[in-house]
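does this look right to u?? magnesium ion version
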Amino acid sequence: MGRYGPRSLGVRLILALLVPLAALEVFLWFHVRGESFSTRLSSYLVMFVAGISGLVLLALVLRSVLRPLSQLVRVSRQVSDGELHVAPAPLAGPSDLRVVTKAFNEMVAALQAYQSQIDRLAEGDTAIDHTLPGPLGDTLRRSVSHLATVTEQLHASEAAATVQARTDPLTGLGNRTAALDELGNIAAVARASGTQGAMVFLDLDGFKSVNDTQGHAEGDRILRVIAQRLRAACPLHLVARNGGDEFIVLAQSVVSLDAAIALGHELVAVVARPCTGTSGQVFALSASAGVVMIDGTREPLDVMARADSAVCHAKELGLGRVEPFDERLSGVIEERGQMALTMRQGLADGEFSLQLQPIIDIATKQPVGAEALLRWSRPGMTDIGPNEFIPIAERTGLIVDLETWVLEQAVGILRDWRLDPITSRMRLAVNISGRHIIDGNLVGLLSDLCTRASVDPRLLDLEITETHLVADIGRARAVVDDLRLQGVHVAIDDFGTGYSSMTYLHQLTVDTLKVDQVFVAGMCDDRLDRTIVELLLRLGDSLGMRVVAEGVDSEDKLTLLHELGCHWAQGYFIARPMGVPEVTLWLRQQAALADSLV
Ligand code: C2E
Ligand code: MG
Ligand code: MG
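got this back:
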């Protein structure tokens, strides 16, 4: 009990009463000293009774004050310890004490109200208590209402982001993620109710040539028209764009495979309706379709892979066809999946390596660098060439991991080359899949790798082929622009073979054109090939791009390329792809040789 506690107060009161009583007694004792014994005794008795009554009265008064006071102290202790869930202190004792106790109880009730508002807030409930008293209540209300607004905005932007993440920006249809989710839902319903759903995978036939001849803006417009038609034709089904010119229609419930195939034919007919271009010309597009039943026994990705195989099969058989998935096709999927798994394991086990093929400046014969070519050597098995495993890595998405590894190695090689004045000026070209450009984070990856290894990104050339760029040329352009801002050089590989090479020159700003080796192969014997090479060289010159000829496997080709003004060359005549130490040595020796000839 503290210095100012009720007990010390009681003791003080008792002392305060006893001291005057004792003084009175002493006074009386002196006063009645000369009186008779009986007078003195009766005086004492009176005094004694008066004293006892005073004491009893005092005790009663003290009790009526001290009890409520001690309860108030107990409750206030709990409150000051942070315990707000206390019963109100009872209203008792003198009126002043009642007033204090009542005020105290009201204060505790206010604190309890603040506390419960804060508790609700902690649970994410932003409902405002309008009864909170005082300025603190106002502040709390303002804070809660501010928080409620912020939370609402956050929820709204989260919801928008979720919708965006599931929407194809070009057509407004669902995207691949939305299709995979819906596949999961249909499978769950099929499992629960024994019904069957169906997936129709549509791939436009020859859409690439629309892009090539009409330009990407017109291509995008046509994709939007087709998307609208499909949506109108299937108001009850989910229609999604898988990317590029591929669409997916998911039907929740179909009675049979025949009904699903009939739906496929209907959709192919919808696409085949003539479509008028912006300049009035009429296109007749067609689509092929693959059909798969959804019975809930397979994972969404598996169903997607089956539909993909079915549509590829349909295309192999001719245009505008509808083919159901056939179990015989599952062998192809399994083989591809198995190969991707083996590749992933091979990457972890160090089965991949790089070979470098030197590139020279034709005019000076000086080596200028090399191109990195990926190799996969599986122990006890024949090697598989990149032309075989790269397309599988692209289809399965493994390409991003694979090329991340290639880029790490390439930056490591450039870092080692920095130690020698001759190799420090050599460039390294790396092949990058269009799929990696669109799906990966090349800009961040390269900036990270080059910064960590203190390598100048201007020594890197990224060679891209156009195969996958068509899926999202807008994104490809943004990535290529960012890479070039970093200083990385970008080349279009195998230039001249793809239908859309020329169109890509409009869409992408690049530094280098690599003339495809098919033209170089025939240039000395075939007038057409020679003319094409000449044209490509002139094109490169007029656009201020460097032109590199690949597949230079004879002296006469190198001589002719020199006469035609080609800048750089690579090929078996100059050097075959070699291991890193051999190429490093070759570059040093050739540089020294070329110097000595000057
Ligand atoms: P590419 O980038 O056009 O590479 C040139 C290919 O031509 C290489 O084949 C090379 O060995 C071959 N070659 C070089 N000189 C001659 C010659 O004088 N005559 C003939 N007939 N061929 C020559 P490789 O190494 O089999 O690569 C084939 C393709 O695989 C490459 O073509 C490239 O598109 C792709 N590739 C290789 N590594 C990677 C990679 O890391 N990522 C990606 N996405 N693709 C890669
Ligand atoms: Mg290349
Ligand atoms: Mg090439």
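The radius of gyration is 44 Å. idk if thats expected tbh
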